[in-house]
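Hi R.,

Here's the chain you asked about this morning:
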Amino acid sequence: MQLILDFLWSEWTTTTKWPKCRLVQAKFGKSLIKDIELNLNDAYMLQCEPSHDPTYELRLFGAVSTSSGEQLLRLLAGFTEFLTAAFNVNPGREESFKSDEIAKFLKLSPDETADLGRILSFHVFDMMNMGHAKSYEWWECGIPGGFADIAEPGDPVQKLERVLVHRYQPRYPVNIDDRNAVLAQMPQPAFREPVLGILGLGREEDQDGPVSLQASPEVFVSHSAKDMDMADALLQLLTAALGLKRGKIRCTSVDGSKLPLAADTDEQLRSEIRDCRIFLALLTPASLQSTYVLFELGARWGGESYLAGLFARGASGATLKGPMSRLNVLNAHNEADLHSFVGDLAKKMQLPSPKPGEYLRELKQLCVLSRAGDPLVQYEGKRVKARGQQNREQYFVYKGYTHYLEPDAAQVCESARIPYTPVEPEDLAVLCGKLDDSLGTLQMKAILKELGLLGER
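And here is the predicted structure, written out as tokens:
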């Protein structure tokens, strides 16, 4: 049967067409083909009649049982975890993921990207749009409805098995017990170990001892490289308050905590995100725009392990979506919150209660950096609008709030020769997260007079 399945897969991938039934029957024998169809209830291959000349097509189980099956299952397992992390961050996402975006993130070659598209075209996840259906050079896939079951925390291998079983549709309706009985009789693809490997979930020990020669760090700091200064300040606070060595903290942008030379970056990060005792997320406008940070958050959330976060530089609870919105995240610009943050970590790690005098300088430095990058502080007393967009809404930032400028208020600013300041989209999102009443002519004149700007320019 392996030869037949390999032949069907090869024909489809090389000619972009399924082979004719008469060709397959002539090559392997009609009686053998019919026996396979009958005994396996169309689980592996199916006769289709798109025209007067029917073809044989693989089903999902057939594809993963070819000699390419292990690689296909690796791709499917990685993609399943990718969607799980994306779902945990934003279950209501409506936009589809493009194949080039997925390939870049999962580091897939063009051939691997096409193979993943082919396996997804079996409607594994229900939502699939093929741009070039024959070549699979481009495709997109969104988070399907009903994905919550797959995204629940648990063994990723079992989740993959549920995907496969869910997509097995026999010729005649059967209940789940009958379906499982059929599956039990099938030659099982040896995919558990490969999937464990691709997800970094292999055995912790083997005959020669631990698989990994380097222990996972105790603390993992998820952050954007744009916030390197804050990440460094956070590490200084952790070392001063908790006595942690930098070698026990993974922070990929900060010296002393970077990944080791020649490490398999994706594999090691996946393992460390899963195994670290403490996962800290530095949540800023930049990090919440980072695909990698969101994926790290989703992966950690899906594992039901300890996750703590700090809002900084204007980010707030309004910017978190999905299950993440239920997290109790503290604010790095608030000194009292930072003291609580340090104390909570000490309890979680079963360390002695830190003395504020030993880390106060580092705490204040982190607080200053958090405030310095806050758009509400940066643009205080300024007229702003989105960079590169003409004739769009204008706002005025005043006393920690953002106000929409009505046209007559904008004209007051023009008359006072107050130019608008262009802001980046992520900063504007933070500003609009603190919207207050709109400003008309009288309010705008009163504010400009208070600021000493009316009539001075």
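One quick note: The chain is about 45% helix and 15% strand.

Cheers,
M.
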